[in-house]
Amino acid sequence: MLREMLRFVIRNLARFAYTIIFSLALTVVLAIADDDRSRAVAANQSVAKAARIGGDIHRTRFVMDLSDKVPFRLFTLADHYRVVVDMPNVRFKLPKGAGRKGRGLIKAYRFGLFAPGKSRIVIDVTRPVLIDKVFVLPAQNGQPSRLVIDLTPTNRQTFLAKLKETRKSRSNMLQNKVTAKKTVQLKSAPRQSGKSVVKKTKLPLVVIDPGHGGIDAGAIGVGGTNEKDIVLRFSKLLKKELGRRGHVRVKMSRSKDVFVPLPERVSFARTHAADLFVSIHADSIAKRRAKGVRGASVYTLSEEASDLEAAALAEKENRSDIIAGVELPPPTSDVPQILIDLAQRETKNYSVVFANMVVGEMRGSALIKRDPIRSANFRVLTAPDVPSVLVELGYLSSRADEKLLKSHKWRTKVAVSLVKAIEDYFAKRKLNRLPMLLDENLGKLTASGR
Question: Are 289 and 401 in contact (CB under 8 A)?
Fold first, then answer.
């Protein structure tokens, strides 16, 4: 009997040991495979390590060193004058501060990931220019591959004429691509079962919008911290905390270091029928005025800014698309303006109520600015049917705030306070307990009954 028991124990121990060894071996193999895949992706990615500007106001040359020769597409934009270069799969490893100073016809330049698989360089120029030469030299004689762009001055009329030619060419190319895509879809469209695959849910949807991203770094801290990185980390943490509690659904307008145009952020929230839109940012202020300026604030949408600082911030945030080399389309709408106004009025009311709740919760976890609830014409808050706020977590121009923004512990504490505000907002909205007062004299809403 004892011998049989020993055999049983030994046999099961052997099986258990075999399972552990097999699992460990499989883990190692998968890790090696993942590492090999990562190396393969990196190996196929061209690296930009340096850039320089030469010449004067009569002819200016921009050169960027690349590890490999890459295809590119170059075009210009007006108002503000810019030269834009799109390249696939380039990893930028330029020195800190690269692009902030210009020379000749170039004021400054910036670079980064514009969209998955697409990198972009945006060159700000001092006046209308012509692309005199543009080419990529192959690596040879110990020299890296180089992207070279020669610029010469011109007048606005000539610049716009060239721009029109480029637009027409790009439009024709795009039309050809769209036509080809539609043809393929018609041939291969799967048969529909007739049943909806959308699952109905009563949980409200919150869209978290990490500001800036990719080629648009946003504000840059006194210690070199990029706003785009800080707000992405915070947004991921906020999503995690909301998901852990399970009272709302969450989507993010971006989850990687990629640029998303402002209209697409608004469209993302509306397309997904969001119940709340929270845009996360970190502010900065000019050095001469930065002393002692710090703390969090919350902004809502209004045609006229609540104050000069709010107006300046909205103007700066609304430049995001210009910074990334996006051409702004003229505003159009198929919806009668009166319907938009009616929808937006209620949306603005809810936005202000939520802003009050955010400030109330954040007072226990973060330093709050004096008069923290402000408003201005932020393009990212213009969804007429989605209550929207823009949260400025602090000032990267303040060393004290920058230190806090980089702290995981601090970000967690503030994220939890935002979670409480979001849950409180939906709980009271569900019970129809969001009474508001319209102050006609001040022209703004204040929440009551908290």
Answer: no
- 3-class SS string, 199-246: CCCCCCEEEEEECCECCECCCECCCCCEHHHHHHHHHHHHHHHHHHHC
Take residue 400 and report the two structure tokens written for it.
């004290």
Cβ(276)–Cβ(247) below 8 Å: no
Query: Beta strand pairing status for 249-252 and 368-376?
Result: unpaired
- CA–CA distance, 442 with 351 (Å, rounded to integer): 17
119 and 230 fall within a common domain: no
pLDDT along the chain (450 residues), means of 10: 46 47 42 42 75 95 93 90 92 90 94 89 95 91 92 94 78 46 39 40 91 93 94 98 96 95 95 97 80 90 90 89 73 49 76 95 92 94 94 94 96 97 92 53 41
Residues 134 and 269 in one domain: no
Same domain, 271 and 366: yes
Please give the model's pTM, rounded to 2 decimal places.
0.73
| Whether residue 147 is found in the same domain as residue 263 | no
Domain-embedded: residue 38: no
Phi-psi region of 199 (alpha: psi -120 to 50; beta: other; left: phi over 0): beta
On whether both 230 and 343 belong to a single domain, the answer is: yes
Q: What is the pLDDT of residue 37?
A: 42
144 and 244 share one domain? no
| Whether 53 and 133 share a structural domain | yes
| 104: alpha, beta or left? (left if phi > 0; alpha if psi -120 to 50) | left
* 165/7 Cα distance (integer angstroms): 85
Domain carrying residue 280? 205-325+335-447
DSSP of 315-327, one letter per residue?
A: HHHTTHHHHTTPP
